[in-house]
Amino acid sequence: MQRLKDQVAIVTGGAQGLGGAISRRLADEGARVLIADIDLDTAEANAAGIRESGGVALALRTDVSQGRDLRQAVEEAVEQWHRLDILVNNAFEVSSAGSGGALDVPETVWQQGMDILVKAIYLGAKYAIPQMKKVGRGSIVNISSVHGLLMAPGMMVYETAKAAAIGITRQMATEFGPDGIRVNAILPGHMVTERLRSRWEKNPSGLRFFADQYPLRRVGTMVDITNGAVFLCSEEASFITGHSLVIDGGLSIQLQEDFGVRQANYVQQNPDLKIPD
What we know:
Structural class: alpha/beta
Order of helices and strands: EHEHEHEHEHEHHHEH
Radius of gyration: 19 Å
Largest sheet: 7 strands, parallel
CATH topology: Rossmann fold
CATH superfamily: NAD(P)-binding Rossmann-like Domain
Oligomer: single chain
Number of strands: 7
Shape: globular
Distance between the termini: 42 Å
Strand order of the largest sheet: 3-2-1-4-5-6-7
């Protein structure tokens, strides 16, 4: 079933990882996909794989912190396929994830994180929405995180940005709902991506420890997130906007006192556990 047949999508940060999986899944569902990523070689490899599987995809080097690049991505998609229906704001800044708190985050790291994780959402919408208005509808999916709801020491830039993504989602949903444009967010829990797979292959006990933290007793896979992305982009979600779809296996709903006791018991029962950093 191709729920997105003949629609046109842009996925920022769509070369690999979660964005790469979303790009492939949208194409499987019939969308024509422009992969907008700063890593052009990897983006082109992902696009080639989509085409080899019978899909339609192109890659474009895109620095999402730059408005001219996002404008070019939108123009390229429209030039190639004459419309724009979907924008997935997924681009990720690795160095911002564990960059510290207010006392030790360098100002340059703060600005880079905000540019890529927050400003890019605004810029993507700025250039995509006029094209969606021409179609008479559209779907924007902003990839936030459970870190937008739950905080940890040492992650101020990332968590501030992911919380901002939730607010941007709600504001834009209110602003552009009358134009038939829906804006939603996805909040993933821990996902095993290509980047993390090698980490867990070296420490399988650590992965089991992570999995035990979830009520479903497993961590997420990229399929879990791509299922949510396709749903939010499809007509099945035609009356859903401004929503933050938490896809975290129940991680964020637990009573913390009970959770802490259970984790302490898990550590005692698994003396060979190598706790991840």
